[in-house]
């Protein structure tokens, strides 16, 4: 039986994956495949190259709390009410996303900031050479399709997967422009299934669909709300392919609140601890002779179906 873990995107919320991995490791739950999207791809690739969750935590914490990252004040991008200055980062960011820039720029921040993170914490290697097979999801901005990377430069691929549109510019790989994978597959369970996993565990940290108390203020906000509802429902359909879903209680927290690092990790641990018994029970069930026989028969039929389709078409 092959097992996989899918680490979803969510900006700072994805730090909860570290807590999830800590609990899984302490319970000797290992994986044959790892898939990741956006910030989930950063943590996923580090785990795939052999880093322990504690090492990943220390590495990222050291980076996020250094002077360079602190100067960015990313947490200030969460809510305009927290910022009073007309020249504040949040106002500039919002104005850029809403109106663009007179200079015609494609993002609010340059890639140098995200590249610095990637080059600092991620080894310079091919994605196909990780200790545990790893797949990373990005969005092909030219055709709107999902791109699943299993070969190519690890750093650049993760950079593409984590490039939030409007905040960071798209990334060019082999003359194709890619951006944040969360727009096509925020928690890549289906990718893990395509990898060949029989059992998939999902760590889901996507934003919460909140119930509104009042109608959105204008037509643009109403359209944005409807688009968010549609994408949220689509992601809910995709994630149902997971055998177990871990959902840390952090979905109300903004993607930019990296200052809540410890909270995210702890909430990840709590959520994973509540699911350990279910995970262990399902893994045992998957390893019974009957379950193995069913999987074997299913693979034979799937293989025959593919051959039949090839013959017909």
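Q: What amino acid sequence fits the structure above?
A:
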């Amino acid at each position: 039986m092959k097992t996989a873990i899918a680490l979803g995107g969510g900006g700072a919320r994805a730090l909860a994956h570290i807590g999830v991995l800590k609990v899984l490791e302490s319970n000797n739950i290992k994986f044959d495949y790892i898939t990741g999207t956006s910030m989930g791809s950063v943590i996923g690739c580090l785990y795939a190259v052999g880093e322990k969750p504690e090492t990943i935590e220390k590495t990222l914490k050291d980076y996020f709390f250094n002077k360079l990252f602190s100067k960015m004040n990313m947490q200030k991008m969460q809510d305009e009410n927290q910022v009073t200055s007309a020249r504040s980062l949040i106002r500039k960011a919002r104005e850029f996303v809403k109106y663009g820039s007179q200079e015609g720029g494609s993002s609010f921040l340059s890639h140098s900031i995200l590249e610095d993170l990637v080059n600092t914490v991620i080894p310079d290697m091919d994605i196909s050479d990780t200790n545990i097979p790893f797949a990373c999801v990005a969005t092909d901005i030219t055709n709107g399709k999902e791109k699943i990377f299993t070969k190519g430069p690890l750093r650049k691929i993760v950079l593409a997967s984590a490039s939030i549109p409007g905040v960071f510019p798209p990334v060019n790989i082999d003359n194709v422009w890619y951006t944040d994978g969360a727009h096509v597959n925020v928690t890549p369970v289906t990718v893990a299934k395509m990898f060949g996993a029989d059992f998939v565990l999902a760590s889901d940290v996507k934003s919460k669909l909140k119930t509104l108390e009042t109608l959105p203020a204008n037509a643009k906000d109403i359209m944005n709300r409807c688009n968010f509802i549609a994408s949220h429902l689509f992601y809910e359909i995709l994630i149902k392919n997971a055998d177990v879903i871990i959902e840390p209680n952090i979905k109300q927290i903004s993607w930019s609140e990296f200052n809540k690092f410890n909270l995210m990790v702890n909430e990840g641990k709590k959520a994973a601890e509540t699911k350990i018994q279910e995970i262990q029970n399902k893994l045992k069930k998957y390893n019974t002779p009957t379950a193995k026989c069913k999987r074997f028969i299913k693979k034979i039929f799937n293989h025959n179906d593919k051959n039949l389709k090839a013959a017909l078409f």
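Q: And what stands out in the fold?
A: The beta strands are 3-7, 33-37, 134-140, 146-149, 171-173, 176-180, 199-203, 244-246.
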